[in-house]
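Internal tracking record. Fields below are filled automatically when a chain is submitted to the structure queue. Please do not edit lines marked as system-generated. If the sequence contains nonstandard residues, flag them in the REMARKS field before resubmitting.
Queue: standard
Priority: normal
Entity type: single polypeptide chain
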Amino acid sequence: MTFRGQVMAVTLVLAVTATHTAISAILTPSLPTQLTLDYTLHYGQIIIGHVVKTLKRQKNGSYYHSTWTRPAGLAKVFTNVQFVEQGTFTISGRRPQPLSFADTKTGDGHDYRREAIFNYPMHRLVFAHALTKPLPPGTQDLDTVFYLFMLNPVKPGMRKRVYVTNGKDVKPYWFVYRRSEMMMTPWGKLKTYLVSRMSRSDWEAEKRCTTPTPACRARFHAFEIWVAPALQDVPVRLRQRQHGHTLTLTITYLSRS
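SYSTEM-GENERATED OUTPUT FOLLOWS
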């Protein structure tokens, strides 16, 4: 190949690479500048709470996120307890990289505040009273894990292990795709993907569960998430079942820009 041919070949490779990069940038999911999600919280069939999740991009490119849970319906007569989760994160590749997280409870005489600082240079999670624990790669907090799915859409067959902190500890969870379901939403009937969040012990137990009977598998569906691909995998329903009680979050409103 002549020198001119070599130059043309290199130019062609660079052009193709640049085009592929540009297309990838367009196709790669990104988070909105602002996002607001409203949910109704049910205990069984009774409305007991209102939950608002917000996301806002800051001027420095980082994101601030919060989740505010307060009583609603009949529960307002009996309690003033409120929960607020908030934190900040940046984007690293295609995943949130949390910087700080706080979980606060007020209103019932048993108030608390849990905090976690993500010290990446030292590979440590710093909690209250200077308590630290190792910071596993890719660790998320209770809220950023949902933005992780918005950046990495759920697909059939997904089995993803993610370390999650609640501001007090950090534990590994498996997020396992179950099935596709059609679900009625404020935007009509949408296809959703059902995902189970499982602890390490549940994950190991399910692998040992070789029979498909409901009794065998019931314990492994304690925390379930339905995401809507048409809404960039925003969670449209979350359900927690424990000790015979069921709590369900159902989306009622979405605003993004």
